[in-house]
Amino acid sequence: MGIRVIGNLKAFSQFAPRWRRLLAASGTANPFVSVPWVEGCWACPENRQAVVVVEGDKPDGEPVAGFVFTCRWMMCRTNGLPARTLTLRPRIRAALPFAPAAVAVRRLSADEFDRVVARAMRHFGAWTVDLSHCAQLETIAPLSDWQEQGGYLAYPRQETPDVIVAIGSYDEYFRSRTTKIRWHVRNRYRRLKKAGLDWKVQRCSPATHSWPQVESMIVHISDKSWQRTSRVGPMHPEVVRHTLNLFGGMYAEDLLDAYVMSIDGQAAAFDIAVGRRDTRYVLIVGYDPKWREYEPGKLTHFAIMEQAEGGPFRQMNLGFMGSVSKTQYKQYWMTHTEPVRCLQCIRRSSPLGLADLLRREAPAVGALPRVLFGWLNGLRVRRAARSSSEPGGDQ
Question: What class, spelled out in words, does domain 2-160+341-378 have in CATH?
Fold first, then answer.
């Protein structure tokens, strides 16, 4: 068995035909390992990314497994120290995957998976591995055996559950909503009719709309929304534009499930998702505040649920349940939640592993690295504050 590291977009583009054969052989339904998604993640300047491929023993050397690792600085949850950390969640700017970026024709052994992780760690100079959605990753590698055999300290990390909307009978789904939500939806329909406004929610596909057409409608809504709310976050218009630029390849391969609601011929709301087999993963939603009194985002969701009845999807994944103020709509729409198990694994032989050992065996000594880091960080902040307040400082 050979391990190969692909460290840049050009090399992956040359490897793409073999990656597609790996996806076909595995029968995976994970859209976050598709070629357009991996290439889109690589095009994000903030991503440090590498694909680690396990090549088979056959003469043709066809890959039997592949993992898309990203590396970023994260705080160690046990001792509060920063460290380069590997993850299997490559993101495209504002869009975060809901599944680990891993694919395999067969289940790897603990030793094989350990060689993969060790190779990725050497490539990035990382000491820790942050694994999300471990239940899905267990189908590819035995995590418990790997932790013991590879010499890792594993700590469960609390993660909010994924919000799920079951897709079935639309009438049953609508009746299951609260009285307040049902009244709101019916009332908005009546308002639109009373105002004499024509509206429709349509699915955009390569056969009906070009990607520049869809992109322009979403950018228009995003710009209007930002002007009204002036928020700071991942939905900044420039971030949305860059995200959409990288979605073009997925749309061309019909991996993107995009819906746009128009009122009186003007784009009013959108819902962007990726879908494979029976699950629709919602990535970005938004609406134009100009039409706020009609709640176009809510009407778009219910229209999608109605159109999805009898289709290929059996559930809609809205992602994790965040703060109530930002994800209240998910509570309105969901039918249930699914737990997400996450682990942070630290190699025992690394400096962080030693710091954690000291923390457990000699708490007074083990607390020193964290105290020192806090002091150094505070010193850096104080120096920056002094330099900006001095004449000739940052202006």
Answer: alpha beta
